[in-house]
Amino acid sequence: MWLPLLGLILGISLGLLTDIQIPDVYESYLSIAVLAALDTLFGGIRAQLQQVYDDKVFVSGFFFNIALAAALAFLGVHLGVDLYLAAIFAFGVRLFQNIAVIRRIILTKWSERKKE
Amino acid sequence: MKKTVYIRFTFILLIVGFMLAVQYNTVKNPETRDTRDVWAIRQELAKETELHSELLSEVRVLEQTIGKYENMMYESPKIALNETVGQLKKEIGLVEFNGPGLTIKVEPSLESIVVGQAIDGISPELLVRLINEINRFKARAVEVDGKRIIYSSAIRDVNGKTTVNNLAVKTAPFTIKVGTSTFEDAKKMYNQLEASAIGDDFYIDNLKLVIGEPENNVKIAAYDQSISKQFLLEIPGGES
Predict the structure, then answer these.
(1) How many domains, chain B?
(2) Which residues of chain B does A48 touch, with a Cβ-Cβ cutoff of 8 Å?
(3) Do B12 and A30 touch (CB under 8 A)?
C-alpha cells in the first residue's frame, strides 16, 4: 500500500527539485496529460477493486490516453477549435464516475466487514 | 501478481507526481521575460562600466595607501598615518580646497529689479536642487556664501531664512564656489550647468544664475564648525 504513495512523493519531489518549467505554449498539453493520467489511475484502482484488472490494459491505457489527449489538444490548436475541452470533459466525467464506483466498493466492503 | 500491480501503480504514480510538480512549477513561477530593448541594455551596461572604472580608481588609491604604509612601516608610521588623516580630512571637506573649479553667482533677475519687486532669499528647496545638480556632475567641494558644504551639512528654513550649516544665507546676490578634480571636469560642469534646466527654476523665483567660466584656481574655505561624531570615539592620549 505504501509503495505507490512513495512513488507519488518521489515523483513530486523530483519534479519540484529539478525545477523544470515548460513554455507557456505547452502548458495546456501538460495539464490535459495530467488529467488523462489521473483518469487512467483511478480506472486502474477501480478495476483492481472489481477484480478485472489487466496489466496490459492499464499500462497501455495510461500512455495511450495521454497521447490521445495531447494529440487532441494539438489538433485543436491548429484548427482553432478548443478541442482539448472535449478531452477535459470526457476525462472529468470518467474521473467522477470512477471515484464514485471506488467509493461504493469501499463502502460495501466496509459494511460487510462490520457485519461479520 | 499483487506485487506487480503495486509496482505498476508506483511507476504510474511517479510519472503523475512528476507531471503534477512540473505543472505546479510552471503555473507558480511564470518565466519573467526580459523585455528591455538593445538600447536599454546598452545604457545599463554603460552604467555598470562607469561603476567598474570608479571602483578601479578607488582600488588604485587604496593600493597606493597600502604601498605607502608598507614603505614607511620601518621608517615612521606616524607620517603615513598623518598623511591618511590629511587625505580623509580633505575628502570630507575639513581642509581648504585649492584647485580648478568655477564660481556661480546668484543674482536678482533684471526684470524684478526693473519692476521693483521685493527680492526674497533663495528657498532651501531650490538651493538643495542646485547642489544636487552640482554634485551630479561630480563636484569635489562646494561652498555656498562662504559656508562649506560637507556630508552632514543641513540646508533648511529657520524662521523664514534659508540656512546652511545653521548660518543664514544672504539675500541675492551671493556666490557659490564649486571645486572639481580637474580643469576638464570644471569645463564639463560649466557646459552641463549651462545646458541644464536649473536656471529656469531660479528664474521662477526672480533669481538669475550666472555661471562663471571655469577657473584654474578656486579657493574654497574649510568647514569651520565641529563635526558631531556618532560612533567613533577618541582614545585618550597614552592609552593607545
Answers:
(1) 2
(2) 5
(3) no
User: Is A77 inside a domain boundary?
Assistant: yes
The answer on pLDDT for B22 being more than 70 is yes
Range of the domain at A50: 24-115
The reply to whether B105 and B189 lie within a common domain is yes
Interchain proximity A53–B14, CB inside 8 Å: no
Provide CB contacts within 8 A for B142, sequence distance 6+: B131, B134, B135, B148, B149, B176, B177, B178, B179, B220
- Give the structural domain span for B209: 97-220
- Counted domains in chain A: 1
Angle between helices B124-136 and B183-195 (to 10 degrees): 130
* Shared domain check, B172 and B209: yes
Is there a domain that residue A43 lies in?
yes
Q: What percent of chain B has pLDDT over 70?
A: 96
- The answer as to whether B102 is a domain residue is yes
Q: Say if residues B175 and B103 touch (Cβ distance below 8 Å).
A: yes
- pTM of the shown model: 0.50
- pLDDT tens for B74-119 read 677 777 788 888 888 888 888 888 889 899 998 888 887 788 777 7
Question: In a mutagenesis test of the A interface, which of B22, B25, B29 is the best target, namely the one with the most A β-carbons within 10 Å?
Answer: B22
Task: Tell me if A52 is assigned to some domain.
Answer: yes
Residues in B closer than 8 angstroms to A44, CB to CB, are: 8-9, 12
Count CB-CB contacts under 10 A for residue B178: 31
Q: What is the mean pLDDT of each run of 10 residues along chain A (116 residues)?
A: 85 87 83 88 88 86 87 87 85 92 92 87
Asked whether residue B57 falls in the same domain as residue B152, the answer is: no
ipTM comes to 0.85
Pairing mode of beta strands B167-168, B161-164:
antiparallel
